[in-house]
């Protein structure tokens, strides 16, 4: 682990991302008169520059905006879309075809999503939220441990080709943490976007570079796909929780599974003393299993809408959680006990941004290019393209768990694949918390566990996030365990029949959270990825023609 992850107190608001300078950019936007949406958008552009292996203009995601004063919420679905020329059986059996080829690229949605939210809620000019990232790309930045580690443990950079290889494997040597890099190509792209908006990417000169890169890689995404892309504004779904509400995105995000899990956990009636009771962790793991068993029931609600929406309503109901909870006893059970119907689809990567401002406007934003470096295809304009077509269920692949593919998540033109992303806002009369995570399927368990730590087990935000976490997604049939889980808890779980496996992939999930109470704002970035929560600081990231007001270095409670 690296980075100090300190809680920061700030009169203007709080920003949490997994890169310190991106949190600072968001904080500077707040100091310059912007609101939470402005800050989230600016931070997101920054993350697409610095941690482009996880997110960027070539990807997509989800965003929730909530006005705590009026209790109004807005949900933005800018998930990638299957191209017009796709087919259910389009993927071959050849290794890698699904993950790192032109066919793996879905229609990107991030820029459209950021623009839609900014037009609806932003306070600053568009150029003011884009320019900080453009300036950073042009002036240069330090390679993060996250990006460098991904080229050691997640992908083989010796197989990078073309533009991607030139940027990240210059001279045949992969960049390492601490190396300095400039991205003038991406800076130019962001400058164009600052001036022209999303039209430049979806129908203009940047669009041409995307189509050329896709065609060169044997893909099927067309200019018509880009021109027809639409952001969907979805109703936010919520459940009552601990005297307030947990709000999240509808499918095709995994928000419904998160709400099912939250409802399951609340019914155990934990108290502050439960944090040291091994039984708490047995109950949590069993709840994980039942929740993940339902992940295969979801899909894009635009397709087969009646079945998907009816299932969604069932999943998020407290009555259904009560029924499932009654099946949780003092033992672990074989996977069939939890009644999963369909083969799970594994995904990863991702970045998350949480912001709360001085006016009680909160943003929870998760975005991704799917797996590390997405499709491993970069355009001449410096954009890494997603491989989100791999998130669809694939009937051509053999089942790992003797389960059929999810019929609600099969490839259809215009469809959005199921995602593990679950941006979330927790609120009650005196508190609002924007929270979310990166980490693929571990997003769901991680966000639920931290919410439970804060709201049910009465932990402060720092220990709630820093505390070692457990994860079980039903398949494969073992519990992942971070270092530091107490031995008495592990022994108890083993006695209940759990197969405990140390998690060896650096981290389980990475949480970003900002919580505002009646008189304080707390921002916390997970130590596990070396991030740092926002400090309202002291640095001017805007170019001369975008300057607003001079920043101050005041850091204080509200």
From TrEMBL:
Active site residues of this protein: 350
Gene Ontology annotations of biological process type: glutathione catabolic process; proteolysis
GO cellular component, one term: plasma membrane
Keyword Glycoprotein appears in the UniProt entry: yes
GO molecular-function terms, A-Z: acyltransferase activity; glutathione hydrolase activity
Entry binding sites for L-glutamate: 79, 368-370, 391, 419-420, 440
Alphabetical UniProt keywords: Acyltransferase, Glycoprotein, Hemostasis impairing toxin, Hydrolase, Platelet aggregation activating toxin, Protease, Toxin, Transferase
Stated name of the protein: Gamma-glutamyltransferase
Pfam assignment, any one: G_glu_transpept
InterPro entries given in the database record: GGT_lsub (IPR043138), GGT_peptidase (IPR000101), GGT_ssub_C (IPR043137), Ntn_hydrolases_N (IPR029055)
Keyword Protease recorded: yes
Domain of life of the organism encoding this protein: Eukaryota
């Amino acid at each position: 682990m690296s980075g100090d992850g300190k809680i920061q107190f700030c009169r203007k608001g709080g920003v949490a991302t997994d890169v310190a300078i991106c949190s600072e950019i968001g904080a500077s936007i707040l100091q310059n008169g912007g609101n939470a949406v402005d800050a989230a958008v600016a931070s997101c552009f920054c993350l697409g520059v610095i941690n482009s292996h996880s997110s960027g203009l070539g990807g997509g995601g989800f965003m929730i905006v909530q006005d705590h004063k009026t209790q109004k919420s807005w949900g933005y679905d800018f998930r990638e879309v299957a191209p017009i020329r796709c087919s259910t059986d389009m993927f071959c059996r050849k290794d890698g075809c699904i993950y790192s080829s032109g066919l793996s690229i879905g229609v990107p949605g991030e820029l459209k999503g950021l623009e839609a939210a900014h037009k609806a809620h932003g306070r600053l000019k568009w150029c003011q939220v884009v320019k900080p990232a453009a300036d950073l790309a042009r002036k240069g930045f330090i390679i993060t441990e996250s990006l460098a580690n991904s080229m050691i443990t997640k992908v083989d950079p010796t197989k990078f080709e073309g533009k991607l290889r030139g940027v990240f494997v210059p001279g045949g040597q992969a960049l390492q943490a601490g190396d300095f890099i400039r991205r003038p190509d991406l800076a130019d792209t962001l400058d164009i976007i600052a001036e022209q908006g999303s039209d430049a990417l979806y129908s203009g000169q940047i669009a041409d570079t995307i189509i050329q890169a896709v065609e060169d890689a044997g893909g099927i995404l067309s200019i018509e796909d880009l021109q027809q892309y639409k952001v969907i504004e979805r109703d936010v779904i919520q459940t009552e929780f601990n005297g307030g509400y947990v709000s999240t995105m509808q499918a095709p995000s995994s928000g419904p599974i998160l709400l099912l899990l939250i409802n399951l956990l609340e019914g155990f009636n934990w108290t502050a003393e439960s944090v040291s009771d091994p039984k708490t962790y047995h109950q949590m793991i069993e709840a994980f299993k039942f929740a993940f068993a339902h992940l295969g029931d979801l899909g894009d609600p635009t397709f087969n809408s009646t079945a998907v929406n009816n299932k969604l309503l069932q999943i998020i109901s407290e009555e259904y959680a009560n029924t499932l909870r009654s099946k949780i006893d003092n033992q672990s059970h074989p996977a069939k006990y939890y009644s999963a119907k369909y083969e799970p689809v594994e995904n990863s990567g991702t970045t998350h941004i949480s912001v709360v401002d001085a006016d009680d406007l909160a943003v929870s934003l998760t975005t991704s290019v799917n797996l590390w470096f997405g499709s491993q295809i970069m355009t001449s304009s410096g954009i890494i393209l997603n491989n989100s077509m791999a998130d669809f269920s694939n009937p051509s692949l053999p089942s790992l768990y003797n389960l059929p593919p999810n019929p609600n998540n099969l490839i259809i033109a215009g469809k959005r694949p199921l995602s593990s992303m679950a941006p979330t806002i927790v609120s009650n009369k005196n508190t609002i918390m924007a929270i979310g995570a990166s980490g693929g399927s571990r997003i769901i368990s991680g966000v639920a566990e931290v919410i439970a730590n804060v709201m049910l087990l009465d932990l402060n935000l720092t220990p709630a996030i820093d505390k070692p976490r457990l994860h079980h997604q039903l398949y494969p049939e073992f519990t992942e365990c971070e270092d530091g889980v107490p031995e008495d808890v592990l022994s108890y779980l083993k006695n209940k029949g759990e197969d405990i496996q140390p998690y060896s992939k650096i981290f389980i999930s990475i949480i970003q959270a900002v919580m505002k109470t009646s008189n304080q704002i707390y921002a916390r970035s997970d130590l596990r990825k070396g991030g740092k929560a926002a400090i309202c600081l002291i640095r001017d990231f805007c170019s001369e023609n975008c300057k607003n007001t001079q920043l101050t270095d005041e850091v204080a409670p509200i």
